[in-house]
Amino acid sequence: MRFEGEESADGRRFRFRLESFEGRVRRERVEGVAELRPPVGGIARFSGPPGLLLELPPDTVFPVRQLEDVLGTLTRAPALLHHRIFDGSAPEPPVLLAAFAGRAAASGGERLWPLAMAWFDPSDPGSTPLFELEARTDAEGIFREIRLDFGALVLEGRAVRIERLPSPRCPR
Q1: How many structural domains compose the chain?
Q2: Is the residue at 72 inside a domain?
Q3: 73-107, pLDDT tens digit by residue?
Q4: Residue 42, domain extent
Q5: Beta strand segments in the chain, E
Q6: What is the reported pTM?
Q7: Alpha-carbon radius of gyration of the chain
């Protein structure tokens, strides 16, 4: 699987492309551009599958905004956040996200926050999550431990080494 996405600084435009492969053979391509026009919602225009248009509800956000908002909850922890997120991974309506940030705890000289996130199908209000994420993160959003639960498959990971690089200078 390969995913590319580009979100505008104001969070209103999102270009996306996802390709799924079996070996070297591409089996699926989801590609397009989505635009939000608050407060009325927005639209996703797909070039793959060709010609598909999808209306986006007024409270929709794209992935970078969702991540910024989740990390923003750390300063208010414990805090709960709800979002409707469109990530371009499928030609389907945005999913519902519930995220909870707990209080930070000291670990190895750092403060780490527990995060729990769950994504839900908006067409089934009583459903169980499509998938869940549990993590411990620092203030910069670097996950030190992560657990992804897809139901039939659970993945766990832990950061072994983190190397902080100097910030590049950007020409103005």
Answers
A1: 1
A2: yes
A3: 888 889 999 999 999 999 999 999 999 999 999 98
A4: 2-158
A5: 2-7, 13-22, 25-36, 42-48, 50-56, 60-61, 79-85, 95-101, 105-107, 110-120, 131-137, 143-149, 154-158
A6: 0.82
A7: 18
